[in-house]
User: What shape does this take?
Amino acid sequence: MQKCPACKEPLQGKYWCQSCKTVLVCPNPNCGERVRKRGSDSCAECGMLFEPYIEQRKKVRECPKCKKRQGLLEQRCRACKYWFNCPTCGHKITSTSSLTCPRCATDLRR
Ligand SMILES: [Zn+2]
Ligand SMILES: [Zn+2]
Ligand SMILES: [Zn+2]
Ligand SMILES: [Zn+2]
Assistant: This one.
């Protein structure tokens, strides 16, 4: 049986450790990205916060700009209007200061 790399307890599932809550693979069914930075509280790929999912199966993300939590499927922060993904091409916007999409140049200030 596989062991948790953080606390060495046997792993019950492939996504996270039951005893120390270290997440190894993003549990979002649409993502499944391996968590490279141990101890991360959210997925670097899809942005989902791990703790609300583990506790309540809630898919939420935190806005990198204003830190408000909202549904993972939101494309745009309802509070500060920050785009998580480009409304035109779906490209993930990683910089909170970009004014246009780095891939298709859509204006993100609308
Ligand atoms: Zn553990
Ligand atoms: Zn993910
Ligand atoms: Zn926001
Ligand atoms: Zn775009």
